[in-house]
Amino acid sequence: MKQIKLGNTDLEVSEICLGADGIGSKLPRELAFQVLDRFREGGGNFIDTANIYVRDFAAGYSLSERILGEYLRSRGKDSLIIATKGAHPNPKTMHTPRISHDELSRDIDESLDSLGLDALDFYWLHRDNPDMPIGEIIELMEGFVREGKIRYYGGSNYSVDRVSEGMRYAAEKGLRGFSAISNMWSPAVQNAGCPLSADDTLVCFDDSQLDVFRTSSVAFVPYNSTAKGWFAKRANRIRNERLDSVFENATNLALLSKLEADAKDAGISVQTALLRHIGKYPVQIVPVTSVSSIEQLDDLLSV
């Protein structure tokens, strides 16, 4: 797997980011170590987690981060690039933002402790606070950069207007600002009135909103970029009523036909053909993709 420079950073990352949301749940510790070893062997080095993933609220830590930290201590970090997230609202009050210096400081320190790191390569704000001026958020994050706790930062689930405002603010102030944005996106067109998630705090981009990245050096690191595996499932004649309600339409079926033809010509899976298709977009897209088995990972590494 080839590596690329991420956005406006000096981070050399693999063209696919391994999502660690399943570490500690569908990927228990032993299997997680095997997946991480294999990912590295295959040229992967970019890993994405969050302090909300598989979180033990009573103990006050993310099991995903803890197991990843154990892996780093056991195998060494070396060239791995670790991204994690904070500022996630309390799940009981999802519309109450958690973006303040004290809340972020606690989240960052907790992640540093769980991961066993002195500084975080990349830090995502997991949600926005639309009532807070974007400049205040950027200045807050710049403070953590100056403290040496994080190297680069970005926003996850930020609207296109907020992304644009952030880019303008950073340019006016001579700051790097957001180095990447991570929202829900895939090449698939979603049917109106059929959201992929019931969580209305998530922000889903469509292709038209990718224009915000065309004239900037900000990277796009989307989640759910393979449409929850819908193309691969349909190619294997597996029907999923929920996913079909979201993605079954003429546009996506036409893309599926193209992907099936590409996969046949190249001797690869439809899932791999989809990831290669994403790599041809005119903006820098580094998709976050999770796996639940070594077999799925090997398919991912064939990109």
The helix count comes to 10
Strand content: 5-15%
Mean pLDDT: 97
CATH architecture: Alpha-Beta Barrel
What does this 3D model show about the protein?
With 303 residues, this protein is α/β, with parallel strands linked by helices. It has a single domain, classed as TIM Barrel (Alpha-Beta Barrel), CATH 3.20.20.100. The chain contains 10 helices and 12 strands.
Describe the protein's topology.
Layout: E1 3-5, E2 12-14, E3 17-19, H1 29-41, E4 46-48, E5 55-56, E6 61-62, H2 63-75, E7 81-86, H3 101-115, E8 120-125, H4 134-147, E9 150-156, H5 160-173, E10 180-182, E11 219-220, H6 230-235, H7 241-247, H8 250-266, H9 270-278, E12 288-289, H10 294-301
Parallel strand pairs: 3-4, 3-12, 4-7, 7-8, 8-9, 9-10, 10-11
Antiparallel strand pairs: 1-2, 5-6
What labels describe this entry?
single chain; 303 residues; alpha/beta; eight-stranded parallel β-sheet; two-stranded antiparallel ribbon
